[in-house]
Amino acid sequence: FPTRRSSDLLMSHYNDFETEITDQEALVRALCRCENRNRQQIQTGWVETHTDPQHLFGYQGDRRNQTAHVIIRQQHVGGAANDLGFVKDKDGKYSAIISDYDSSHYNKMWMSKLITYYNVEKSKIELENKGIEYTETKDDKGRIQLRAKFKAANAASHIQVRR
């Protein structure tokens, strides 16, 4: 393991995690399906969205160099946490910005759930924009299923996203 200097202990390092996420609305909706470190469902009002990226702050209120377009502030991330952010790159993809400290909860498993919820929400937004009715259910294995009703075919189509 790399050794940390004592000055490193004062500020948690941020890591960037690339994603295929490109739709901000679907990202916000997906975040609101996830839980924070305190096992509370993330609320819409906790998620900030910005056209111009804003600075993230550490658990002591210190302004960090990292900026993000979508931010959950530390009081909503969960106890002694740092801000959690998503920054949009020049190609339109969002990268998650998560501190080392917070990565114990906001880890690979959490990101996997977020991506699943993102895919579901992105599909729902596309159906809503086309005026197509749908229902969302979970099967006995916990997999999310979207069932869309297409008026022209008069038959239900089945879309399944695994978590």
Structure, explained:
The chain is of the alpha+beta class. The chain is 24% helix and 35% strand. It contains 4 helices and 8 strands, in the order H-E-H-E-E-H-E-E-H-E-E-E. A hairpin with a 4-residue loop joins strand 7 and strand 8.
Number of helices: 4
Shape category: globular
Following the backbone from N to C, one meets helices and strands in this order, namely HEHEEHEEHEEE
The gyration radius over C-alpha positions equals 18 Å
The chain-level mean pLDDT equals 86
Instruction: Please report which band the strand proportion falls in: under 5%, 5-15%, 15-25%, 25-35%, 35-45% or over 45%.
Output: 25-35%
Note the main sheet: 5 strands, antiparallel
| Total number of beta strands | 8
SSE blueprint and pairings:
Elements (H helix, E strand, L loop, with lengths): L5 H5 L3 E5 L5 H8 L15 E11 L5 E10 L1 H4 L6 E5 L5 E6 L8 H22 L3 E6 L5 E7 L4 E7 L2
Antiparallel strand pairs: 1-5, 2-3, 3-4, 4-5, 6-7, 7-8
Helix pairs in contact: 2-4
Describe the structure concisely.
The protein has 163 residues and is of the alpha+beta class. Helices cover 24% and strands 35% of the residues.
Name the descriptors.
163 residues, alpha+beta, 5-stranded antiparallel beta sheet, 3-stranded antiparallel beta sheet, 4 helices, disordered N terminus
